[in-house]
Amino acid sequence: MEHAGRQSLADFSVVRALPGDRPEPPDCLNDEQKVLWRSVTATKPPEWFTDETLPLLRAYCEADLVHRQVSDRLKRFDTTLLADPEMLGLYATLSRLQTAQAGSMSSLAVKMRLSQSSRYDALKAARSHNRTSQTARKPWEE
User: Fold this and answer.
1) 63 close to 29: Cβ distance less than 8 angstroms
2) Is the CB of residue 61 less than 8 Å from the CB of residue 36?
3) Is residue 98 within 8 Å of residue 70, measured between CB atoms?
4) Above 70 in pLDDT, residue 138?
5) d(CA 38, CA 34)
6) Virtual CA dihedral for 40, 46, 109, 112, nearest 10 degrees?
7) Per-residue pLDDT tens digits for 89-119
8) When comparing pLDDT for 22 and 126, which is higher?
9) 30-59 pLDDT, tens per residue?
10) What is the pLDDT of residue 13?
11) How would DSSP label each residue in 64-93?
């Protein structure tokens, strides 16, 4: 609440969020996750992310990091070791985790309306398909 008279130094030390500011990433995210947070919020208007969607965005950033880490591990996996039942089990576990994280990210993206499917319009898709199919060359025409 404002008061009459001179303002104290403490009055100037409070930073208020202005309407239209994008939400800052929470401190619990690491640097990679904060980069993703800022990248995602930059793709939408400032008012897109409301207080109730911020936990979803945090979960999305967390799931993305796990997905990338598991994917990197799978890329480096020596498939010649799959004859060993223990290594096959590890590979299967990593694959399931990768799939689960991708599913989680997909679900969260749809809930926050980040994905193309959340903006799908059947009429626009049909018109686009018709335009593309009329101008595209058929494989046998090449």
Assistant:
1) no
2) yes
3) yes
4) no
5) 6
6) 160
7) 999 999 999 999 999 999 999 999 887 765 5
8) 22
9) 999 999 999 999 999 988 998 899 999 999
10) 46
11) HHHHHHHHHHHHH--GGGGGSHHHHHHHHH
Please, are residues 57 and 28 in contact by the beta-carbon 8 Å criterion?
no
CA–CA separation, 100 and 106 (whole Å):
10
66: CB partners within 8 A, 6+ apart:
97, 101
- For the chain, how far is it from start to end, CA to CA, in angstroms? 73
Does the predicted model carry a pTM greater than 0.70? no
List, in sequence order, every beta strand (DSSP E) within 19-132. Answer: none
- Rounded to whole angstroms, the Cα distance separating 70 from 80 reads 19
